[in-house]
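Researcher: Here's my situation. A collaborator sent me these components and asked whether they could plausibly form a single complex. I don't have experimental data yet, so a predicted model of the whole assembly would be a useful starting point for our discussion.
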Amino acid sequence: MSQTAPAAPAHRVARIGLAAMGLGIAAFALLPLVLPTYQVSVLTEILIFAVLAMAIDVLAGYTGRTPLCHGAIFGVATYVAIYVSTQADGALLLPLVAGVVAATLVAAVFALLAIRTSGVYFLLLTIALGMIVWGMCLRWTSVTGGENGLRGALRPAALTDQLAFYYVVFAVVAVVALVMWRFVRSPFGLTLRGIRDSESRMRALGYNVSLHLFLAFTISGFFAGVAGVLYAMFNDFVSPSTVALSQSVEGLLMAIIGGVGTLFGAFLGSAIIIGLENFASLYTERWQTVLGLIFILIMIFAPEGILGRIRLWLSRRG
Amino acid sequence: MSELLELDRVTVQFGGLKAVDDVSIRVKTGERRAIIGPNGAGKTTLFNVITGIVRPASGAVRFVGADVTRTPVHARTALGMSRTFQITNLFPQLTVEENMLLALRGLSPRKFSLLGDNTLSADERARAERAFSLSRLHERRGVAVREMSYGEQRQLEMAMALVTAPKLLLLDEPAAGLSPAERVIVSDIIRALPRDLTLVLIEHDMDLVLQLVDFVTVLNNGHLLVEAPPSEIRTNQDVQDVYLGKARPHA
């Protein structure tokens, strides 16, 4: 939840926030220079999934609609990008553009169906929509390869090097994060927070709430699609598990752990979950148990998420 | 240009219940009209018909000369309707200023600015200042609405309804839940509204209403009971029967 502090300490909180952001950017910029290749690839994945989690936060945190279909939207972009790359050999941009466009279109269709509902019904409807995508990817074997998935090589020769690719992802994610930050703070972003707080009041003020929800959902899907094509370049492989419900849940968990309604909390959430997936699994097969325990602890001690908790704490002290 | 709002034989049905039954009301431009009646008389339903939340089963609603019977809520607002809510309905997590911004931009294309700056334009600033000074909320603009007192929230509610300079202001029990002192403030604010603003208010509190309006519509059980100026309402036998109960001849 977004916290609003009185004017004077708000400036201080903003300054601390800026400093923390600088620190985070510096860490993501410099760490790969000293890390071994495998860990650079983990960092790449963290950045890509942070974009997915931010896309989910646009709806869950700023609009008050918690979606469970963004893994599917993300996966559509991955599938389409890889499929197009296998069909149009050597095309560099086409698969990426096709992936993002496909994800945005799917999101627009989902939006038309889902925006009439809210709360638990929205959650259930988005799960169902996501499952349809998953079912199609599993059964439409001639195009998707069924359970075997699809393999493709989207990266041009210059980016086969893990470190070079990392910095490309870093640059893209930095731009995307900046654009999303502008988006949630724009006049349109404010209307979304208004809808989160009171739809009936928004209507009475002259806002076409359905139209705003439709745009928010579609734009959020566009960003999930950007994450999806980055993942296609990163992984060179896609299978039904990429569009499965667990992907949507994981993205939502990232947003919640980082702090819903904080946008950049997504980076923390992504780092924690991807980090656990990759490093806790070295020590125990049951890394998901560890994740579950951490999630429970966060929900008990910081239900507003890590970044949300820190913000609240700072604004109260100030 | 005489009738601003016109309800023509409006009936609203919820299952077997006729909440509003064949009610016709005409409100002239500049008029101040109260709709009163006991609990369950159909006041709120009628209000929802006017604002567009409920669609009538039959009958028509006309506003500024246009048939708006099937027009959605937000489009009626664009035609110049504005309303307050009986139960305070604001954006609790946003600041007073952000609440005002949303009220200001409801009808401006700037609400679709996806990446634009969220600061106030000169015109918006001027209008916000005026609304703030009307509602005496100047110093509270940086405060989150959920941290304000109920009385302050009611004032903000009114300020937000007025900031777009509507043609018709609909007040849904403006004094509900207020202390006697706060009621005085609210009736002062209502009295200070520009005279050319048409006003329709529904209210329980007869004493408050009768000194504020030009004309009163009394509803009972979904029917229109009486339409008369306030001076006649006080002495009207039907109104007294409805509000105080009828003396039964055989009791």
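Model: Some features of this prediction you could bring to your collaborator: The first strand of chain A starts at residue 150 and ends at 151. The two ends of chain A are 18 Å apart (CA to CA).
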